[in-house]
């Protein structure tokens, strides 16, 4: 594996994998919630309190090239949460063709419970953010918080992993911090990063600003015990020589008008083949 990284994201990805494997804490021997589909406890090795920063205005994007990442599906999922403001799995599957949430269906309701998009809708969080950034951009109160205990008491469901965003105007730029309580790093780490970068780009366009710095704060960054071989395979790969970039095309300005077709991913040549992972659910 070369040490001459083109991508900041690849450098950070490799360093974090090495940190988890070399210095992480194992959950083996402790009571845990996640299981694999076969019922086996899904143990992890993890590190805490990881912070990553990418200046989108300078072309720094959190896209690893060490394996293909489903960035288009990631963006469609974020549209489901913040545009559709839905917890309905049929909307996710039929409108957006995303199937990976079915394992978290709650009590045969065809939903994921009062979570994510349903929380956005219940508290009108998206409109409050857009209105606040438009009318009072320099207040320090632009926050979307999906971790609502009243919602947890209302229905069962997975507690939100990527649960809090804080938005800050800075001159012509809009900066955003994503707080995530838990990250399945190899499977969803860059999915989460890129979908929230896409969200930053759409919100910035809506309020007349440019996307600035994206900061990602992760409290528990983990690799599942059935993903160790895949982690070692990723460390053996040579990153792409190109720096991928996500572009939001010119034209639209209303947050609710954006679709996947308004995004273009350029210079993305990830290393193949794709890896398979057993999900902890």
From TrEMBL:
Main EC class the enzyme belongs to: transferase
Signal peptide stretch: none
EC numbers: 2.1.1.45
Main location: cytoplasm
The entry's keywords: Cytoplasm, Methyltransferase, Nucleotide biosynthesis, Transferase
Binding site for (6R)-5,10-methylene-5,6,7,8-tetrahydrofolate: 184
Residues binding dUMP, per UniProt: 140-141, 181-184, 192, 222-224
Record protein name field: Thymidylate synthase
Gene symbol of the encoding locus: thyA
